[in-house]
UniProtKB/TrEMBL annotation:
The gene is def. PANTHER family: PEPTIDE DEFORMYLASE (PTHR10458:SF21). Removes the formyl group from the N-terminal Met of newly synthesized proteins. Requires at least a dipeptide for an efficient rate of reaction. N-terminal L-methionine is a prerequisite for activity but the enzyme has broad specificity at other positions. This is Peptide deformylase. Binds 1 Fe(2+) ion. Its EC number is 3.5.1.88. Signal peptide: none annotated.
């Protein structure tokens, strides 16, 4: 397994729309494993392939306290939603910033697993937030798109400054 480099906002590659995965090959399974390793190391609770500069429809999440409940979702699609809930979100691509985002509270998702088999999952609470956040990445959408333009520009400026200092 290998740790992957995570793109940071405002990198324009985070705005690419991911393509569907037509065949769950060993390469895709390895990518899922590498993404899980990268997510756990960060540490984070979710990661989309878009964030590691692979523009294919694959996300990984694990919201368990023990970090022993990884879920791999390939070509995830929201089948139904229920309710609404505001929760604080952060993002490995926007380190150090957290904002409230309102999303459906419960979702039913259809996806393909790491073995290539279709499954559906009903998610609520943190898992629902996390899956929706990661699915947004596949559309080139970030949690800062839900907040005010002024706040987003402030975060953008601070991150650019931080990235320059690191370079
Ligand atoms: Zn994110």
């Amino acid at each position: 397994m290998a740790r992957l480099n995570i793109l940071e906002f405002p990198d324009p590659r985070l705005r690419k729309i991911a393509s569907p995965i037509t065949d769950v090959t060993g390469k895709i399974a390895t990518l899922a494993d590498d993404m899980l390793e990268t997510m756990y190391a960060a540490p984070g609770i979710g990661l989309a392939a878009s964030q590691v500069n692979v523009h294919q429809r694959l996300i990984v999440v694990d919201v368990s306290d023990e970090k022993n409940a990884p879920v791999v979702l390939i070509n995830p699609q929201i089948v139904s939603t229920d309710g609404e809930r505001a929760a604080e979100e952060g993002c490995l691509s926007i380190p150090g910033f957290y904002e409230q985002v309102t999303r459906p509270a419960t979702i039913e998702v259809a996806a393909i697993n790491r073995a290539g088999d279709p499954f559906t999952l009903v998610a609520e609470d943190m898992l629902a937030v996390c899956i929706q956040h990661e699915m947004d990445h596949l559309e080139g959408r970030l949690f800062v798109d839900y907040i005010s333009n002024a706040k987003r520009q402030m975060i953008r400026k601070k991150l650019i400054k931080q990235q320059r200092q690191q370079a």
